[in-house]
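Extended Data, record Gfo/Idh/MocA-like oxidoreductase N-terminal domain-containing protein
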Amino acid sequence: MVACTLGGFAQGVDDISPMAIYNVGLVGCDTCGVAVLNHFLSTGEARCVAVWSPDEAWSRAVKEEVAPLQSKVPEVCADYADMLDRRDLDIVLIVLPEAQGLPLFLQACDYDKSIYIELPIHLSAEEIAPLVEASHTTSGAVQVGCHTTDPGETAGLVENMLSYLNGQTDSLSSPIDKISVSDK
């Protein structure tokens, strides 16, 4: 189901990089979510510690694919709140179709985690406003990708976020309060 996607990038992530290893939780275990997770894993600066998806079969498949790539086997969380409650979770990676991830983003902001979210390109100002407001309440960094972003751009966004968290760069390249809105 996801084997071809995960096998393409990651070669194992434990102790590759001299940088910090960030613990990532994937929300949305379909092909798009796995592709973005691959970008995190391929940096050597992140490992997947938890997965949650509305479809538990996808979560289990991702767990099985990620487990051989790192020493820590990701937990399949039965509930999204259980994932957010994890003390070892540094980054919540939200990649769900359409606007399904928006309420999950709002919930993640309450937990002061750093968040990478893939947003649809057709959100209105009214849909973006509560996301921007919530992002100002969290102490974590918020980086935004787009469902239609090409893989090279996604890799750049992921690398920028990790560089920001490591203190190597002063700003995020795509913060949520700088994204454009549609004229719905």
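Summary. The beta strands are 22-27, 46-52, 75-76, 91-94, 114-119, 142-146.
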